[in-house]
Amino acid sequence: MAEETILQNGFPKGEHRDILLGPNGEVIWERPWQSNLIVDGLRSLLAGLLKGDAAVSRLNFWAVGTGEREWDEGDLPNDDDRRMRIELFNEVGRKRLDDGQITFVGGTITNQLEITTDFVVDDLAAGLENRQLREFGLFANENTTLGNGLLINHRIHPLIVMQEGFTLQRVLRLTF
Asked: What 3-state class would DSSP assign to 98?
């Protein structure tokens, strides 16, 4: 019953925006705020944190992946299947999130968090094929190995081809 109420009200929810900067810091493009999918791992994380379970920890990593080429043609997996995922489809890089990159919207304790990070080519696995980004996800727990940790959110997005000298700025908001 509680789950039905949460889903009817649209909480928790995630939204993000991306900005691609060129080599001189110029804005190449900026995408508007868009929704992303909260996956079942978030509920497990919240339960573990409330219990004080030592097996779970805060958000620690923002990961990116190449996803699947067929997504470019609109052939996407359905949300119900994605909600049960525990990893990205094809992770090629992850960055640790420091304390200053996770803030409360408004500056004091609220029901909204904002997470920010930048990605450059050096953050990705070697190879031109790994510069074709189509997905991202946030992970909790301390596991730095690609494909590990507790996935709490997932987004499939239009293809972004990373180039040397370019910076992908990502901002994500979680509302509980």
From this structure: coil
In this prediction, residue 8 carries a pLDDT of 53
Question: What is the pairing mode between strands 132-140 and 59-65?
Answer: antiparallel
Mean pLDDT, residues 18-26 taken together: 98
Q: Kind of pairing, strands 102-104 and 27-30?
A: unpaired
Residue 14 structure tokens: 């995630």
Which segments of 47-165 are extended strands (E)?
Answer: 59-65, 91-96, 102-104, 112-119, 132-140, 150-161
Structure tokens at 84: 């049960």
Angle at 29 between CA 167 and CA 78, to 5 degrees: 90
Tokens of 134: 């189509």
Mean pLDDT of the chain: 91
The yes-or-no verdict on residue 7 having pLDDT over 70 is no
Contact 151, 88 (CB under 8 A): yes
**Count of CB atoms situated within 10 Å of the CB of 25:** 7
- Count of other CB atoms within 10 angstroms of residue 22: 13
Confirm whether pTM is higher than 0.85: yes
As a whole number, mean pLDDT of residues 82-92 equals 95
